[in-house]
Design the sequence.
């Protein structure tokens, strides 16, 4: 099992789906964040584990888009902002197993996230 940032990498265990991958993350996120992330990843839970980077980015982008569209800037959105950060971090943690694809993934993620404010009709 490889080690990413001093933590076990669930991409190298016997996980087969995005849901399995998230359940295997060590250390597990704090309970409130874990529950929120689990809900955000639920639509992707049955996808193959190889889709973790894309699933995490898609879930993070969707949530960030929702936050931007609602103009939410209060303390009540802190958990959601942490969730966006965690999802993007997990996406690249999972993608580290395919370093030859990292540049392309990073460029697509950056372009997609940067385009979010412009895609809103405010």
Sequence:
């Amino acid at each position: 099992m490889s080690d990413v940032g001093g933590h076990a990498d669930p991409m190298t265990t016997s996980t087969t789906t995005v849901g399995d991958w998230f359940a295997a993350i060590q250390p597990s996120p704090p309970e409130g964040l874990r529950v929120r992330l689990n809900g955000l990843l639920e639509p992707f839970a049955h996808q193959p584990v190889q889709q973790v980077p894309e699933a995490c980015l898609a879930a993070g982008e969707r949530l960030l888009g929702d936050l931007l569209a609602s103009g939410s800037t209060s303390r009540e959105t802190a958990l959601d902002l942490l969730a966006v950060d965690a999802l993007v971090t997990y996406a690249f943690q999972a993608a580290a197993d395919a370093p030859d694809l990292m540049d392309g993934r990073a460029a697509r993620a950056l372009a997609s996230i940067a385009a979010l404010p412009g895609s809103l009709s405010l």
The chain is about 60% helix and 5% strand. Confidence is low (pLDDT under 50) at residues 1-8. The first strand starts at residue 3 and ends at 4. The helical segments are 18-24, 31-41, 52-70, 78-95, 102-119.
